[in-house]
Amino acid sequence: MDSLLDRLSQPGLDGWELVERQILTAWSHSGSASMDLLLERGRQALDEGRPQDAVQHFSALIDHAPDFAEAWNARASAYFQLGRFGLAIGDIRHVLALNPRHFGALTGLGLTLEEMKDNKDALAAYRAARAIHPNRPDLKEAVERLEPQVEGTEL
Fold first, then answer.
1. Which one of 16, 84, 119, 141 is at 20 to 30 Å from 112 when CA atoms are compared?
2. Mean per-residue pLDDT for 60-66?
3. In 3D, which of 99, 39, 40 has the Cα closest to residue 71?
4. Whole-angstrom distance, CA of residue 55 vs CA of residue 64
5. CA dist list (Å): 38 to 72, 74, 106
6. In the structure, what pLDDT confidence band is assigned to residue 152 with cuts at 50, 70 and 90?
7. What's the burial of 110, exposed, middle or buried (CB within 10 Å: 0-12/13-18/19+)?
8. What is the band of 138 on the pLDDT scale with cuts at 50, 70, 90?
9. What distance in Å separates the CA atoms of residue 105 and residue 139, rounded to the nearest whole number?
């Protein structure tokens, strides 16, 4: 995993999407088929617009596998969709405690803080995600969008 994350952190990396996909796939495997099934069912509920059902699946997964960072990250996404931003941030904290280089959780933190109108901390979260994953265009755009709002513009 370290070598994949090190590759991903190279600015201008050709094929970064493949490296990102490899990382996300690895992060989605708990080591237990039944736990992976709970993750899959929760993600399906999210995709179908049923975030409350997703929370139930992800909470059951967390109960059985509390050290599985992706379970916390997935539930944070469900809480975000429900507008329960405090709970989303709490789950993101768990993700980052378990996996400090989780660029998806940092991006989610930025999105959540931005929704809460905390642009200064959102910018910091996006910058942290971008330090790990400098090639994602959405992170570049988020940093460029918030910098003038937070830091002002030079005259």
1. 16
2. 97
3. 39
4. 14
5. 12, 11, 23
6. confident
7. buried
8. very high
9. 13
